[in-house]
What does this fold into?
Amino acid sequence: MKDFKLSQRLLDLPPYLFAEIDRQKKQLREQGVAFIDLSIGDPDIPAPAPIVETLSRAANVKENQKYALDQGKYELRKTIKEWFAKRFNVTLNENTEILPLIGSKEGLVHFPLAFVNKGDYVIIPNPGYPGYRGAAIFAGAKLYEMPLRETNFFLPDLKKIPASVRNKAKIIYVNYPNNPTTALAPDDFLKDLISFCLKYGIICAYDNAYSEIYFSNKPKSIFEIDGAREIAVEFHSLSKTFCMTGFRIGWACGNEHLIKGLLKVKTNIDSGIFGAIQEAGINALTNEGAYCTTLRATIKERRDFFVEHLKQKNFGTVYADSTFYVWAKLPRAFKSSIEFSKYLIAQKRIIATPGVGFGKYGEGFIRFALTLDKGIIQNAIDLL
Ligand SMILES: Cc1ncc(COP(=O)(O)O)c(C=O)c1O
It folds into this structure.
């Protein structure tokens, strides 16, 4: 066969972090080696039964078996509107300001195609969710990475973004509750962020995928901040909130013009979300209160146990302020997060994610995902 060289945009991407970890897991499985997997944010808890029953029932409806060629069922958009109003006290227009997605990743990654021209800057957090990098590269953007430093509570220092970047930036990605650092964003930071975006004409793409995975302070929507409606789009996910990662459903909401741009990209790429999954999403959001309280209690129990014991195991500072991740400084004997994660696999049969996989400023940290039963987490602690 002719040697078809990969496109430059694919060559420009670093290897996708989780794909590499998956390769290592596959290798262990092939060798018949048992291991504890604390690497990926994919909840072990089944999606609530009524959600699955709704999906199964709705799959039999002929209308749902056809292309879903619109911007999501009206009923779903109306349910999202009601959920948003109840949760954040923000009223969105269900026809112009809400767009269901095939998982939030789909929207996050496609979004720059709507607004970024070759050579524009896209600003991303480092460490950060790897999808933002791909999003920027696919759109032909130049990348500017804002360090999230421990000394600044894992918030970016917007004042340090150089004039040459902020004057040519189209989008800034921001994510709180934050993966991987678990940090939450205080109100003052959110206000500064929106002032910054308004001043320099930069779209704020606010990733709120973990809005419901918190322990004390309830995370905000960016639309609770004055001025955000002019300049922001916010991404939500049902994946983590309802343990529905495989279903693929989320939404984008906010500024009408930004939503319209994303819809235009999507109409050229996909053909909608399977109708039965949309109905499952309606069920999830309608019964949200009961599901989420239980989920948060389960995660908190795991977190409290894991963090308490990890602190006694030579790790440096341990962060676990939100999400189901734990972001821990490496034990003093280790300098490199890759070296430490290799050691964990080889010596302890534990898989965790090296901080550097989220960007160079993640070096010195390791991320554990508490997406396993407490008994297994206890076994991991015994091994560590
Ligand atoms: C910060 C963040 N945003 C978005 C996503 C994508 O979630 P989904 O596409 O399942 O909605 C993830 C998944 O891990 C994430 O960690």
Observations:
- The pocket of pyridoxal-5'-phosphate is lined by residues 41, 103-105, 108, 129, 175, 179, 207, 209, 237, 239, 245, 250 (CB under 6 Å).
